[in-house]
Structures are given as C-alpha cells and as structure tokens.
Amino acid sequence: MADLPYDDREGVIWMNGEFVQWPDAKLHVLSHGLHYASCVFEGERVYGGEVFKLTEHSERLHESAKALDFSIPYTVEELDEATRELVRRHGLSEGYVRPVAWRGSEMMGVSAQKNRINVSIAAWDWGSYFDPEQRLKGIRMTIAQYRRPDPKTAPAKSKAAGLYMICTLEKHRAERDGYADALMFDWRGQVAEATGANIFFIKDGVLHTPTPDCFLDGITRRTVIELAKNRGYEVIERVIMPEELDDFSECFITGTAAEVTPVSEIGPHRYQVGEISKNLLNDYMALVQPKAAVAATG
Questions:
Q1: CA distances, 139 to each of 57, 166, 173, 272, 274 (Å)
Q2: How many domains does the chain have?
C-alpha cells in the first residue's frame, strides 16, 4: 500500500455522509477548493485502533472552516462517529486519518456563497513521518526562505490548504539539500515553526517555544506542554529571535505526523538529543501507544 498512489487504493472513504469505494471518492476539476484554496483539513493519528484526541481535531476542522467563511455541514459528533466507523472498516491499528472539507463547483470565481460544502474522511496505514533511526539521532533542518504570514494578510491560525503552499516549497528545498525539514520565521523575522510542526528549545532545563500568534497552536504541542509540566519542567511561551538559536542545548519538533522528533541541527546551529527531549518523546509515545513507547534512553 505504501507505494500506491493515493487515488488508486482499496477500501472505502467517507464522503458527504456515505461510505464510497476508494477510487470513486472524486471531485470535479472545476471545484472551487482546487482553484481558490477554499479548503481546510486535519491530520489525525490512529494508535491501537483509536484516533488520538479525535474530538479536538473535529472541533478544529469546524474552526478552520469558519475562518474561511463556510460551515461544515456535519456536527463534531457526526464527524467523530464517521471517523471511528471508517477506522473500524479498514481494520486499522496504526494509521493516519485525513478529514478534508472544500467548496464545490456550483460557482466558479472568487465569489462562492452558493457552493456546496463537501466533506470527506480517508484513513490508511502510515508509519513514522521521519526515518525512525534518524529521528532518534535528531533530524537535520535548514532555515526556510519563505515566512509565515501576518494574520492581517491570511487566516494564519486555520488549517487551510492554501497556507501550506510555502511549506511544500520549503520542504522540497530542504530535502534537495539533504535536510529533513526547514525552520520557518514569521513575517517579523521571529522564530515560528517547522513546515508542518511546532518547535521547542531547551536551555538550562527550561523549555522555550514560540508564542503561536500567527501559526497553529498544535494539538500535539499542547499535549507536550502538559506532559512537560507533569514532569515539573518549566515551559515558557515567548518571542524567540534567530540570534538566540545558538543559546539552546536541545531542540525538538511536535505534530500529529512528527509526534515528538528531536532536532540535531538547524543550519549552522547544533543540538544534543538530551534527556529532556528523550523523556518527552517517551512520555508522548507512552501516552498515545503504551505498548510501543520508543526506547530512547541511554
């Protein structure tokens, strides 16, 4: 399955209230969501047959849609129920879930008030986002050229498809240069996030993470902050400037896909995969999947 294109797989996809065969879950080439990026989505992980923090993801899908001036025509409860049934039908123990909502084809132009809001949910087997061995050694990151936008210029705190265009460009550039990901600054030149994950730094036993005022306050980010506080670690959310990157001893990124992934370098800056990063990686994996906690000690 891993090598098959995503439009030609077996199974079912939940689409507009019904389960349809995977190849039949299609949209027209003149869909507004394709042309004008009027599309929002979520990324969810399945552990042991259960979607981690499913309701929070369904709620965020609704919030993102509101930011793009449309409403999801299914309640949070209906989305949760459809997702659970989809995972059950696929027999997924470990995997990934992708809910997506977009404006349809009734109007084609910038204005789209009459367009139907379509919603689909797909699920599939999916392993580690980064190479597992490299993950424990700490991934290598470069520094992005594009910056996260000013919230006055885009709905920056939504999980909207259009906001990820520059993330794709930066991810491609990083991989061409031999890196796993890229650190993005915001429009002010402050440290923001990776292309698809939040970032944390550690100095003298204290965690520092950028204030999420122009990017997503990730569900995994909030979970890790809670785990850190449970261990008695201090967590400071604040402005972090690029010139501070040499001041930290450890670094890691967090996200549904990335989970907790240590970072060994960002451009010229080097970090250790230290005790705090290992503890939080293990704590997170123990929380989401107790039987498969990563052996990151020693």
A1: 27, 20, 15, 11, 13
A2: 2
Domain span at 38? 12-124
Specify whether 28 is located in the same domain as 166: no
pLDDT > 70 in the chain, percent: 95
Q: Are residues 204 and 138 in the same domain?
A: yes
Catalytic pick from 53, 159, 171, 278? 159
Q: Is 159 a catalytic residue?
A: yes
Of 73, 106, 124, which marks where a domain is finished? 124
pLDDT tens readout for residues 245-274: 999 999 999 999 999 999 999 999 999 999
Q: How far apart are CA 135 and CA 137, in angstroms?
A: 5
| CA pair distance 276, 201, nearest whole angstrom | 10
Domain boundary among 124, 159, 181: 124
